Amino acid sequence: MAIAGQILLADDDETFTHAAAELLRRDGYECETVADGASALARTRERPFDLLIADLEMPGNANLQLVRDIAGEGRGLPVIILTGYPSVQSAVACIELPVAAYLTKPIDFPLLSQKVRAAVSRFRSYQLMQSTESRLKSYREEFSNTAAALPVTGGSPVDVFLALTLRNVMGSLTDLEQLGKALSAQPVQAHPCQLLNCPRGAQLRDAVVATVRVLEETKSSFKSKTLADLRQQLELMLERN
Fold this sequence. Notes:
Elements: E1 5-10, H1 14-26, E2 29-34, H2 37-46, E3 51-55, H3 65-72, E4 79-83, H4 88-96, E5 99-104, H5 109-153, H6 157-183, H7 202-217, H8 225-240
Parallel strand pairs: 1-2, 1-3, 3-4, 4-5
């Protein structure tokens, strides 16, 4: 079963931390715990998380310093703040910072679970958009560099265009699948593109089938290993769906 998300829980109350972590794990999340702000910041730099849940009053989070440090690194990691001593001042400060939720102790776990699910879903959507932007930038650079080298290498412009475009199409299919699952708060699987199986995926599937057919029909014209490999990957994706 896929993990619903990676959560870092930072709180110096050992009893609460143990109980909350176990409940989050029952919800399908992988949950790691630390007891102070410095340790939390260090862990977020060592490995990726989908969400940070942090106690307002724990060591290393004076004046929401941990949240400010996380926000300053520009990774977009969402934070849920927990506090046993709510105040207007701290609530307003959280509004001004990228805090996904401000919850008071004793924690209503169903409410926490709801906030966690929403925060993880939004963050995964954000990550996918960032990943797509990066992939498209890489695609443009690769196409520009390869096209510029054609006069020297003697390669076929059509071959290059098809290879790069189809690679980008496959990346887009994966992005769509992951985004759809993130928005519906479902655990994200690595493979394959289940989007093709949904009712709205019929036209997309037909387009992929047509692409495979064209590649098969033109393989004698474009004797390219890259195009052949891409055709095989598309065929495999269709078989899995």
